Amino acid sequence: MEETALGVPSNAVLMFELELLQLQKGVPEGFLFIWLQDSPEPLFQAMDMNQDQEVPLEEFSAFIKIQVGEGRGRLHPGIDSDIVLRDMFKNQDRNADSKITEDELNIIVNEEEEVLKHEEL
């Protein structure tokens, strides 16, 4: 009978018992963050934690981390959260000036400037 270095025959049937330690739910494809509850209204005022009418990356990250920590939102799993937050910020900082303003947070959907509610943020 041929044996491996650990004394298990090469033709042995191995059975493994696994224990699930953590289940990490995802987010829909194409999203970096989803709300699990209604987003704060008005969103920009909640995000602008120091009320200076602009939200830099640090303030944006702190706001999202609070939402995730309190179970109101979920970040994309499997990717470093700092990378996800940086990408989310970049998507909202439409004029690339390193801060988000209330105007940048709103999406213009037609010529009458109807504002659409953000589904992802």
TrEMBL record:
Chain ranges passing through the membrane: none
Keyword Oxidoreductase: no
InterPro entries recorded: EF-hand-dom_pair (IPR011992), EF_hand_dom (IPR002048), FKBP-like_isomerase (IPR051989)
Record flagged with keyword Repeat: yes
Segments forming domain EF-hand: 43-70, 80-115
Keywords: Repeat
PANTHER family linked to this entry: PEPTIDYL-PROLYL CIS-TRANS ISOMERASE FKBP10, PEPTIDYLPROLYL ISOMERASE
Name of the protein in question: EF-hand domain-containing protein
Taxonomic lineage from the root: Eukaryota, Metazoa, Chordata, Craniata, Vertebrata
